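PROTEIN DESIGN WORKSHEET
SECTION A - STRUCTURE
LENGTH: 329
C-ALPHA CELLS:
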C-alpha cells in the first residue's frame, strides 16, 4: 500500500520489544492510517461540497433541488430572489405545496422526469410568484447516483423578463426577427460599422395643406394611421425603421443585419407602401376625407451605422453621403 506516515516506538519498560509488541503496533498503525484516510476523504468531500455550494450560489439562474420524496432540499440565492421567498419559507416544503395554481405544471413535469429520467425544457413560460408574473426558461433534470439510482430532481429557472421587455421595446422599431439578432449580436452590432445598405426615405406631399385643413388633433390622427400602414410594409421585408422626421420616414435595409437581397427588399417595401397608400386613399375618399400622397427615395451606398449621441441619449442610426442622397431623392 501507499505510505502515508511513520510511527516510532522507543524505550519499552521491562525489556526488549517482542513479536507480540510488533503485531500490536501494526494493528494500531493500521487504525491510525484508516483514520487519517477518512479524515482526508472528509476534507475532500467538504471541499467539493463548498465548491458546489459556492458555484450554485453564484449562478444567476434559480436552482431548486427536490429529494426522491418530492421535498425541497436546497434553493440558491437567485432562486429565492426570482420567487420572492426566503430560505426558511421554502426549505422543507414539498414541490406540490410550493408550485401551485398557475405554477403546478412544473410538478407535472417533475413527475414525468422521474418516470422517464429525461430532462424537460420549456422556453418562455409564465410563472407567478405572489402578485408578480415573470417570463422564464425552465429546465427540469433528474438527479441520480453513479449507480443510476434516482435521488430526486433539479429545477432550473432562468428569468428572461428583462430580455423579453427589451425585445418588446426593440420590436416597436424593427422587425422582431431583427430584434432577436440584434440582442444576440451585442456590442459588435451596436458599435460603429462601415457597410453597404439600402436607405429608404418617404414623406407626405402637400403636408402643410393637409395640416391646415385637419387641425392639430386631425393631423396627429392622420400621421398615426399613415405611419402604422407604412411601418408594416417596411417590417414585412425586415427593414429597420430608423426614425420619424415630422411626416417623413427614414428606414434601412441591411442594417444591422444584412441580406443578399436588401436592394430587392427595399424595392418591394416601397412598392407595397405605394399600393397600400392607394388602398387607404380609397377608404378615405369614401369617408369624404382628403387623399394622402407621398414620395419615396431609395439609394444603395456605403454608410456608417452605430450608436450615435451623448452618454445621456444615444440612437442607433446611419450617417454618410449615401444617407444624404437618399433623403434628397
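SECTION B - SEQUENCE
RESIDUE ASSIGNMENT:
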Amino acid at each position: 500500500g501507499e505510505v502515508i506516515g511513520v510511527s516510532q516506538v522507543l524505550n519499552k519498560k521491562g525489556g526488549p520489544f517482542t513479536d507480540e509488541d510488533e503485531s500490536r503496533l501494526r494493528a494500531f498503525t493500521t487504525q491510525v492510517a484508516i483514520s487519517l484516510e477518512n479524515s482526508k476523504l472528509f476534507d475532500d468531500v467538504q471541499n467539493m461540497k463548498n465548491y458546489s455550494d459556492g458555484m450554485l450560489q453564484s449562478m444567476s439562474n434559480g436552482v431548486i433541488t427536490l429529494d426522491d420524496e418530492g421535498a425541497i432540499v436546497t434553493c440558491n440565492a437567485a432562486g429565492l430572489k426570482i420567487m420572492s421567498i426566503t430560505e426558511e419559507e421554502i426549505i422543507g416544503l414539498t414541490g406540490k405545496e410550493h408550485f401551485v395554481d398557475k405554477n403546478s405544471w412544473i410538478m407535472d413535469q417533475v413527475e414525468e422526469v422521474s418516470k422517464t429520467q429525461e430532462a424537460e425544457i420549456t422556453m418562455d413560460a409564465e410563472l407567478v410568484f405572489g402578485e408578480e408574473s415573470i417570463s422564464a426558461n425552465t429546465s427540469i433534470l433528474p438527479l441520480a447516483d453513479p449507480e443510476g439510482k434516482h435521488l430526486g430532481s433539479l429545477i432550473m429557472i432562468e428569468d428572461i423578463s428583462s430580455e423579453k421587455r427589451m425585445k418588446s421595446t426593440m420590436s416597436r422599431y424593427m422587425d422582431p426577427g431583427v430584434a432577436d439578432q440584434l440582442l444576440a449580436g451585442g456590442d459588435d452590432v451596436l458599435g460603429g460599422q462601415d457597410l453597404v445598405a439600402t436607405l429608404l426615405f418617404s414623406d407626405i406631399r402637400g403636408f402643410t395643406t393637409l395640416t391646415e385643413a385637419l387641425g392639430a388633433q386631425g393631423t396627429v390622427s392622420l400621421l398615426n394611421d399613415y405611419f402604422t400602414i407604412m411601418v408594416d410594409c417596411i417590417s414585412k421585408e425586415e427593414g429597420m425603421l430608423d426614425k420619424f422626421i415630422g411626416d417623413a420616414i427614414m428606414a434601412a435595409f441591411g442594417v444591422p443585419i444584412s441580406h443578399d437581397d436588401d436592394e430587392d427588399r427595399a424595392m418591394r417595401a416601397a412598392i407595397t407602401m405605394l399600393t397600400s397608400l392607394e388602398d387607404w386613399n380609397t377608404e378615405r375618399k369614401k369617408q369624404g376625407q382628403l387623399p394622402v400622397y407621398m414620395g419615396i427615395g431609395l439609394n444603395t451606398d456605403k454608410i456608417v451605422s452605430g450608436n450615435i449621441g451623448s452618454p445621456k441619449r444615444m440612437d442607433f442610426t446611419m450617417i454618410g453621403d449615401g444617407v444624404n442622397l437618399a433623403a434628397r431623392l
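SECTION C - NOTES
Residues 273 and 279 are 10 Å apart (CA to CA).
Residues 19-58 form the longest helix (40 residues).
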